[in-house]
Amino acid sequence: MRKFLALALFLTSATIFAQGTITGKVVDSEMEGPLPGANIMVVGTNNGTVTDFDGNFALEVDKTSGEIEVSFVGYERKVIPFTVANGATTDLGSIVLSPDSEALEEIVITSFSLAIDRKTPVAVSTIKAADIETKIGNQEFPEILKSTPGVYATKQGGGFGDAELRLRGFNSENIAVMINGVPVNDMENGRVYWSNWAGLSDVTRSMQVQRGLGASKVAVPSIGGTVNIVTKTTDAEEGGNLFATTGNDGYMKFGATVSTGVLDNGVAATVSASKTTGNGYIDGTEFEAYSYFVNIAKDFGDDHQLSFTAFGAPQEHGQRETQHLIETYRLSERGTKFNGDWGYLNGEVTHIQDNFYHKPQMSLNHYWDISERTNLSTALYASFGTGGGGGYQGNADLRSIDSPYRNGFLQPFNLDLVVAENVENGDLGSETILYNSRNDHKWYGALSTLSTEITETIELLGGVDFRYYKGEHFREVKDLLGGTYWLEDSDINNPNNVARVGDKMSYYNDGIVLWEGGFAQLEYSENDLSAFVSLAASNTSYKRVDYFNYLDSDPEQETDFIHFFGYSAKGGANYNIDNNHNVFANIGYFEKAPFFNAVFQNFQNDINEDAENQKIFSAELGYGFRSTGFRANVNVYSTRWSDRTFTQSYFDRASDQTYFANILGVDALHQGIEVDFSYRPFSTLTITGMASIGDWNWDSDVTDVFVYDENQDVLNPDSPISLLLQDVPVGGSAQHTFALGFNYEALPGTNVRMDYNYYDNLFADFDPNNVDEGYMPWEVPAYGVVDFGLTHNFAFGDFEATLIGNVNNLLDTEYIAVADDGPQSNARTAQVYYGFGRTYTVGAKIKF
């Protein structure tokens, strides 16, 4: 902190020589509200600034007359002349910008996937960079979206970056997440690990959530929706910022962002870096994380632009993996903060369950205006992930709440007791060890989209999508806990494996995925009508190499590629009835390949001959209203999902073990209605709200389900189970959600914000051992949470500064956010995660 203040004071000592100052306020034509983050640039120079949270700006200029250009993502650009006397200030008043579909289309070309209001026929919510900055605090990135219709975001166990996002009842495996048009969902299982993207909130230009089919132009759309994150490139103005944030439980984040603006040679660069540390709200979830972001872009004349982006977020954090009975939290002196997955070793905190990972991603984008009617956008990208999660194996009980290895009932583990046993075991090796389950990977891809205007009203788009992915999965010895080695027989090529720290154990296999896809889309737009039809196809190929279960001399150690052909057909139309009203509709059908583990059975190279494409049919109707100071949206949807494949985990308290059911071929039906609005009754107050009513149910029974333990060994291979899921509610996500919020400008430069979110019809995820005739999972009690925020802008010497304060769960409401069903499907037997109680952050940012 001392270094931060010293640098800030150093910056304030700088002297700026100027002729005068231009001030003004940039506002939205529809809502008459401020546009924070709008760019102000003196034409013909690199001198510029951005508006603050209230849309205000002050720009010192070194000449008495000229022009400024005012721009904002998705809005028209305005050029405004100015004159200013030497040493004086000229106020340009309110500068009104109107939404401009052509301006947003520039971003659509580069990001492949953004929707345009009153043109693209999808349900969409857009979150501005300023909203992210003011609300993020110490929340997880997905929690910024919690007031969006259909969204349910939770912290899961509460570890740093362990949050989960669900959309319309679909989990992250079935929500496409894209950063600058590049997909980031895991190629084998579709999951998104938000800890990998911890620093993106500092450089996000815009974030958009498309529910349902979405406008994504990659070969196969997602099921629940698409989250599109666009980072800053050449739009970043010259300058930067320093920031520091502190919060509850030792939370501390500090960092900086610097941008060159567009230089005379057409080059623009942005660099951002941050460090985040803390003890964690949940016991035993200490974390240390870093993030970095680099973008270098160059314009080559008016027709070409190259943009290189690299970012990553190396981190390590303790986890709370085990869910507990409500009674357990009640008995613990730590209450809802109780975590049974950590302990002490030699007086130091040691995580039994933890996570460490680094996944840098690099991309090179080329944008080419071939002619006035035709352009080509191409992205080459690569990502390299290294890391995994921890656990234990052996005779010691390092899981149950009454384990003799704890320092007392519901206390942390005393790992020194395990060390003593291992030392006593001498040359026989360790009886219990800590391990890492690694998931390293290499991922290369290419995306290219060609767009051409056939006529003034018809545009044709086509593109290709190629991906190569290799995941290396193995378990390694992390800590022998005082022993000399770990003896195990999982490797058929080395059945008496004397493993030491860093050696592989339990399993070792590769998953290789090839993806080739293409799409074609025809768009029509004339006057008030816009429509599109789209066709896409993809070939997904899976190969598995198993180094432990097959001899090196066995040709079956490596499988052939198994191919799945997927395709999609979708269409939609939007009609603007007048300047206030519009309606839209979309419909689509697509088939996508099953996930990797559904193709290879029993965690071996056995091919599942019954594996088949998942089939999805979706339809949606929507209505929008826009007027000065008020806007609203209403939409209804229906999504039928056939032959779904997924893995359901559950914890068996009798054995203190986690098991996994590999479920193939189940159907589901997700239907609902969503409403959202924004109202600005007067210039200093904005009111927002939403209501989302879902009806999500499993729509078929499923048989021949196999269950596996944590070592990937099948239980009862001759006795698979059946799940009678017909008409059982889909769990894990609140089916009814409501939100109401307001933002009030209490004083010039000072805003107060309050948001209320309410969740109901939240069912526990089903227990695979308990799904019999008439089964109904436990319904979690409804709950509501209030968040409070305050933002204050002020001058810090010659610089703009901002103070941001956030209090999440202001009323310290106790609630259950996640639940797995128990044997009796009630509160007494369910295993749960509680949500966080009251948390807070206070941060400062200085712009230069």
UniProtKB/TrEMBL annotation:
It is a multi-pass membrane protein. GO terms for biological process: siderophore transmembrane transport. Residues 1-18 form the signal peptide. Residues 118-225 form the TonB-dependent receptor plug domain. It is found in: Cell outer membrane. One of its GO terms (molecular function) is siderophore uptake transmembrane transporter activity. GO terms for cellular component: cell outer membrane. Keywords: Cell outer membrane, Membrane, Receptor, Signal, TonB box, Transmembrane, Transmembrane beta strand, Transport. Pfam families: CarbopepD_reg_2, Plug. Belongs to the TonB-dependent receptor family. This is Outer membrane receptor proteins, mostly Fe transport.
